[in-house]
Design a protein that fits this description.
The protein has 288 residues and is of the alpha+beta class. Helices cover 60% and strands 15% of the residues. β1 and β2 form a beta hairpin.
């Protein structure tokens, strides 16, 4: 969900610029900073961004630049007069000295001087240009995200293929371990002298024990989740949360396989599958 976009255009003596950037987030967390003359259009901008960007921590800015020569300021004389009166009253009532540079102090007071771009009334023609600039910046961010998404998709498919291949590589060890389990239990009993046991009952118990270690169901469910993950990648836009849920289910099957693996070779393969899945989980946060 990371991305960046910036666009500019001119309207009269103004240069209107929009900038937008986004980082990963489970939901849309939007911060908007806009020039004062566009403040009345903030909700319209928010709605436009919400419709196009589903998730991410997004920061959007829209501002105006002018040549210094053409930027004029307007003195707020009534407000300046009130500031002067308050200084005089403070001097009379509390003996607070009046600053020698009173004019400079008053000019630095809030709203004593206003730039003309905050005083002008917004026209439909200007807003059309400003909205177009904002939309261009958002489109750039979306294009940036799309490029990143293609790279992520390729990486996801590679990791899913690796997990599938690793799970299949377990099969030779899975088949051989049944006989090893039988032999280990038989050898253990043989080391105990003068022990009589029911061979039929022993066979039943070994079958029960081996069935508890069987991972066929885990393999089938994992292969199903892998296929569903691929289908979701091919599906509609904005499936990041769904991919995250599927990855969690894949993790459950891999963990269960690991708990049932009583061979070092199988456990090593499970560790490799976990490593591949962890990389998927880290990158799925970048998907809308």
């Amino acid at each position: 969900m990371t991305g960046y976009g910036k666009a500019s255009s001119t309207f009269g003596d103004k240069k209107i610029t929009a900038e937008i950037k986004s980082l990963n987030s489970k939901a849309l967390d939007l911060t908007v900073r806009i020039a004062a003359c566009y403040r009345e259009k903030e909700m319209e901008l928010r709605t436009m961004i919400n419709e196009k960007l589903l998730r991410g921590k997004v920061e959007f800015s829209l501002w105006i630049e002018r040549d210094e020569v053409e930027q004029t300021a307007k003195l707020n004389l009534p407000l300046m007069q009130k500031y002067i009166q308050q200084f005089q009253e403070a001097n009379e009532q509390y003996n607070i000295p009046i600053p020698q540079n009173l004019t400079e102090v008053v000019l630095r007071m809030p709203d004593a001087v206003s730039k003309t771009d905050t005083m002008e009334e917004l026209t439909e023609e200007e807003w059309t240009v400003a909205r177009s600039v904002a939309e261009q910046a958002v489109k750039q961010l979306m294009d940036f995200r799309a490029q990143e998404g293609k790279a992520l998709e390729q990486k996801f498919r590679e990791k899913v293929d690796n997990i599938e291949s690793l799970m299949k590589s377990i099969e030779p060890y899975e088949k051989s371990r049944t006989e090893k389990i039988r032999q280990r239990l038989t050898d253990a009993l043989a080391t105990i002298p003068e022990v009589e046991y029911d061979r039929g009952r022993l066979e039943q118990e070994m079958i029960f024990y081996i069935e508890k270690l069987d991972i066929n169901e885990e393999k089938q469910r994992l292969f199903h989740h892998l296929g569903y993950f691929r289908e979701t990648l091919d599906g509609e836009y904005g499936q990041g949360k769904k991919l995250g849920f599927i990855a969690q289910e894949m993790g459950r099957e891999i963990n269960t396989t690991g708990s049932k693996s009583n061979q070092a070779e199988m456990q090593n393969i499970v560790v490799m599958m976990k490593d591949e899945l962890e990389q998927i989980k880290e990158q799925v946060l970048n998907v809308l």
